[in-house]
Amino acid sequence: MTAAPDILCIGAMLWDVIGRAPRRMAPGADVPGRIRHLPGGVALNVAVALARWGLRPAVLSAVGLDPEGQALEAEARRLGVLTDWLTRDSGLPTDCYMGIEDSEGLIAAVADAHSLEAAGDAILSPLTGPLAGWSGPVVLDGNLTEDLLAVIARDPRLARADLRVVPASPGKAERLEPLIAARRGCFYLNRLEAEILAGRACPDAASAAEAVVARGAARVLVTDGPNPASEAMAGQPTLTFAPPPVTVARVTGAGDCFLAAHLAAGLQNEPRDTALRRAVQASAAHVSGKDVP
């Protein structure tokens, strides 16, 4: 019998194809480097990181019944993620993300999450069955459509859930508007995503987090690359913590590691400042090429 999960991660589960060059790249550059195929997608990345913290995450997502989907599900299980409640569709290919990185970070990326979008609210069907009455943490990934996020914001099946929301990319940040309007969730953003939601430029993570709280969000964490990260909460002091300097070995998935470490610390009843510090340190370790814990 499958053990019950303690966290649900709802959103993208796909293959990452990451090409990385060890030097700076100009637009149109064709350079030698390394190409890796890795399990990815925000929901799955967070779930894998949570499993490393000793938790039992389950992913609610859509995968194909193609060889890619079967291999992805097997790898997710090997990494400690529960996959019993996936939506599997023989008519849809398993989704894919392609990113190009250089020594300074991400150059460009394309996310093909069309199968997740096509599956729609079918991925939520376990909330009516084996996962009914869920009241624990739920990670929501901005790869979900804005319509589905709006449904989730008012879905009675998740009325008692602790929502943790991440936009997946700046291009998808506006999809989170229904959750801000509903005043639900703790948001994990980078500074550009926060600026999009705030509707204005912000000089640093602290001002960006406070600007999104002013829009109606109850709790917001904002990262800013190698610069200090911040957490703002309605009616509470804003916290800031600077990441340690590291040599960049990868960037894809850093925000997901940040979220997982912060959520794991919260579940251990760590204070706000400790949780923020742990999240910043975990993200920096990921960027340097290390997995924590």
TrEMBL record:
Instruction: Give yes or no: UniProt keyword Kinase.
Output: yes
Which keywords appear in this protein's UniProt record, sorted alphabetically?
Kinase, Transferase
Domain of life, per UniProt, equals: Bacteria
Q: Where is the Carbohydrate kinase PfkB domain?
A: 6-288
- What is one Pfam family matched by this protein? PfkB
The leader peptide range reads: none
| InterPro entries named in the record | Carboh/pur_kinase_PfkB_CS, PfkB_dom, Ribokinase-like
Q: Which GO terms describe its cellular component?
A: cytosol
Molecular functions per Gene Ontology: kinase activity
Q: What is this protein called?
A: Sugar or nucleoside kinase, ribokinase family
Provide the species name.
Paracoccus alcaliphilus
